[in-house]
């Protein structure tokens, strides 16, 4: 089945089908099958009108099938079933088919609603999986607005696209069924109307093109808009305090206006498509009747049934055209989503296969070289971190401290086997296992819009035991005191990005979270930079007290933070480095001495 779908999808219009099929599988065929059933039942019901007319017209109360052309097969069928085509039977059969159609239509609508929801969820779940598995270095190049928009607004738009697309397919099938029935009823008339219908379709091609282009632009502008929005929320304080928010708002306003403009174009196109549909249908029908009557001299009676089918067929065609135009109005989102998921799939991280059950002995860095886009940052670096040691990483801004730490925690994979954890190439280790043992307090404290307790336990189920652990972690991070003073203690909401807390308090909460996790390796990136000297001193003491129970890698600008470290990796801007204790580096490195002399240690 999927091979057939692939082959068909080489046609652009059908390539969208492959997109939906890739998420919903053969369920889409069930929906299409139901559409066909609805059209067939409706068509058969309609054929009953002719024997009905005939029965009434003949005054016999019984239809004999004369003038029904090939459709007399329906009457033959009734006869075979032992149903004599009296007025009452024909009426009952007509009712029967329309009831059956009602049931099939209900099943179709219900199934489509379920599929619609399933479709949105499959997309959301799939995208979340791809995002979680994304390689960190690729993530750092991504646009946050695009991710945000693709995950929220675009999914809504694609859901609309899905509805319109399948509505279009449903009406396409219906049109096909009606045209086929019309052809069986009156072939000549059918051919004239079909040609007319196809010609009328040409009028729509320009509308389709304009709508599609506008849809693409909406997606692009929405990506920009979301990006601006995220940045204006995260940088609100700065933008507000400097009134740069006024200028930033102008950028956001422009993208809002541009989206509106494109959506207006889509609206106008949909309006035109809607309003010219009916007149066009009528032009085709009137022309076909005139040709039938004047050129082929057929009686009107002969074309009534065919006309009935055609009127329905052409109405279906019109609805199909409108659905298609509505679909095109949001189809830009499908292209965006396809490109986005392809990109994310391409940049998935290798999860690693070797299980990791805990850090046992040492991390060895052996001749590590690393750079970005061929620009070297770390050159031929070698050192060892033994279990429970504290390693300080210092150096000028841009010397590569964060890069080194990202390599050590497996966020950036080194090109060759140059980082070994307990003798195993870090790239081979199961990343989930390994990272569960890594705590990371980043430069910008990571806090989440929830309570203090949830920020520390990271949403672990509340229990007495959990609370006790939270309190211990807060104490170690020197945060217990200020948390106790908060209006609702542990259950206080900390606000968006922790706005209700001071910078130092946010940092202490972040430290408490990593201590709560009881990891083997704790990375602190400038972790005490936002603290006042009293708090820093206290945390420093707590960190020192952790020495010997956890392996710590500490990036520090303030040398006091790492004066007691077992080893210090001192990085220079020219990619050279030195390793030693604070004292030994002070003795042998002029650069290090200079750095120390600039600070009061
Ligand atoms: N994703 C990236 N792509 C390209 N270059 C990068 C990337 N990340 C960092 N760099 C570059 O690598 C060098 C080292 O950066 P890194 O962030 O590791 O330095 P750092 O010592 O931690 O600096 P700071 O103390 O200012 O935080 C810098 O020149 C930086 O511009």
TrEMBL record:
The organism's place on the tree of life at top rank: Bacteria
Domain ABC transporter: start-end pairs: 363-598
Cellular component aspect of the GO annotation: plasma membrane
Record domain ABC transmembrane type-1: where: 71-329
Protein name per UniProt: ATP-binding cassette, subfamily B, MsbA
Keywords: ATP-binding, Cell membrane, Membrane, Nucleotide-binding, Transmembrane, Transmembrane helix, Transport
Membrane-protein topology: Multi-pass membrane protein
UniProt-listed InterPro entries: AAA+_ATPase, ABC1_TM_dom, ABC1_TM_sf, ABC_transporter-like_ATP-bd, ABC_transporter-like_CS, P-loop_NTPase, Type_1_exporter
Keyword Transmembrane: yes
Gene3D superfamilies in the record: ABC transporter type 1, transmembrane domain, P-loop containing nucleotide triphosphate hydrolases
Coiled coil start-end: none
MF annotations from Gene Ontology: ABC-type oligopeptide transporter activity; ATP binding; ATP hydrolysis activity
Transmembrane segments: 20-41, 87-108, 165-183, 189-208, 280-311
Compartment annotation: Cell membrane
């Amino acid at each position: 089945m999927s091979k057939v779908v692939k082959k068909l999808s080489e046609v652009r219009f059908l390539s969208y089908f492959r997109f939906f099929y890739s998420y919903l599988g053969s369920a889409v065929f069930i929906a299409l099958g139901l559409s066909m059933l609805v059209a067939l039942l409706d068509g058969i019901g309609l054929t009953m009108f002719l024997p009905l007319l005939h029965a009434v017209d003949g005054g016999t109360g019984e239809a004999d099938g004369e003038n029904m052309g090939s459709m007399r097969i329906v009457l033959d069928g009734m006869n075979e079933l032992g149903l004599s085509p009296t007025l009452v039977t024909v009426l009952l059969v007509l009712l029967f088919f329309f009831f059956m159609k009602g049931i099939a239509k209900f099943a179709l609508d219900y199934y489509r609603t379920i599929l619609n929801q399933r479709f949105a969820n499959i997309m959301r779940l799939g995208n979340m999986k791809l995002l979680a598995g994304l390689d960190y270095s690729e993530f750092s190049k991504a646009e946050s607005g695009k991710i945000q928009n693709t995950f929220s607004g675009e999914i809504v738009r694609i859901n609309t696209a899905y509805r319109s697309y399948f509505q279009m397919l449903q009406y396409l099938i219906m049109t096909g069924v009606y045209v086929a029935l019309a052809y069986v009823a009156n072939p000549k008339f059918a051919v004239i109307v079909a040609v007319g219908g196809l010609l009328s379709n040409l009028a729509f091609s320009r509308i389709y093109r304009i709508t599609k282009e506008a849809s693409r632009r909406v997606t692009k502008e929405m990506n920009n808009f979301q990006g601006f929005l995220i940045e204006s929320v995260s940088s609100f304080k700065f933008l507000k305090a400097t009134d740069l928010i006024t200028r930033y708002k102008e950028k956001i306003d422009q993208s809002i206006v541009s989206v509106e403009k494109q959506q207006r174009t889509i609206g106008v196109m949909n309006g035109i498509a809607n309003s010219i549909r009916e007149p066009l249908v009528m032009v085709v029908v009137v022309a076909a009747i005139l040709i039938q009557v004047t050129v082929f001299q057929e009686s009107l009676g002969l074309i009534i049934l065919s006309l009935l089918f055609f009127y329905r067929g052409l109405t279906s065609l019109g609805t199909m055209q409108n659905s298609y135009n509505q679909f095109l109005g949001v189809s830009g989102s499908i292209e965006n989503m396809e490109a986005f998921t392809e990109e994310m799939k391409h940049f998935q991280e290798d999860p690693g296969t070797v299980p990791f059950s805990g850090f046992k002995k040492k991390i060895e860095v052996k001749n590590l070289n690393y750079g970005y886009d061929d620009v070297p940052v770390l050159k031929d670096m070698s050192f060892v971190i033994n279990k429970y040691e504290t390693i300080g990483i210092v150096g000028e801004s841009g010397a590569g401290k964060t890069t080194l730490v990202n390599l050590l925690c497996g966020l950036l994979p080194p090109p060759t086997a140059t980082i070994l954890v307990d003798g195993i190439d870090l790239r081979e280790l199961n990343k989930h296992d390994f990272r569960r043992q890594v705590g990371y307090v980043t430069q910008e404290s990571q806090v989440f819009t929830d309570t203090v307790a949830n920020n520390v336990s990271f949403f672990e189920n509340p229990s007495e035991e959990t609370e006790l652990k939270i309190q211990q972690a807060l104490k170690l991070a020197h945060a217990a005191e200020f948390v106790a003073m908060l209006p609702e203690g542990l259950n206080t909401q900390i606000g968006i990005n922790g706005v209700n807390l001071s910078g130092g308090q946010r940092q202490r909460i972040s430290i408490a979270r990593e201590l709560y996790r009881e990891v083997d390796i704790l990375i602190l990136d400038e972790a005490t930079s936002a603290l006042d000297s009293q708090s820093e001193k206290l945390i420093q003491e707590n960190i020192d007290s952790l020495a010997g129970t956890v392996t710590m890698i500490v990036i520090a600008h303030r040398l006091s933070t790492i004066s007691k470290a077992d080893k210090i990796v001192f990085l220079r801007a020219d990619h050279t480095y030195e390793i030693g204790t604070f004292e030994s580096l002070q003795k042998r490195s002029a650069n290090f001495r200079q750095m120390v002399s600039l600070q009061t240690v």
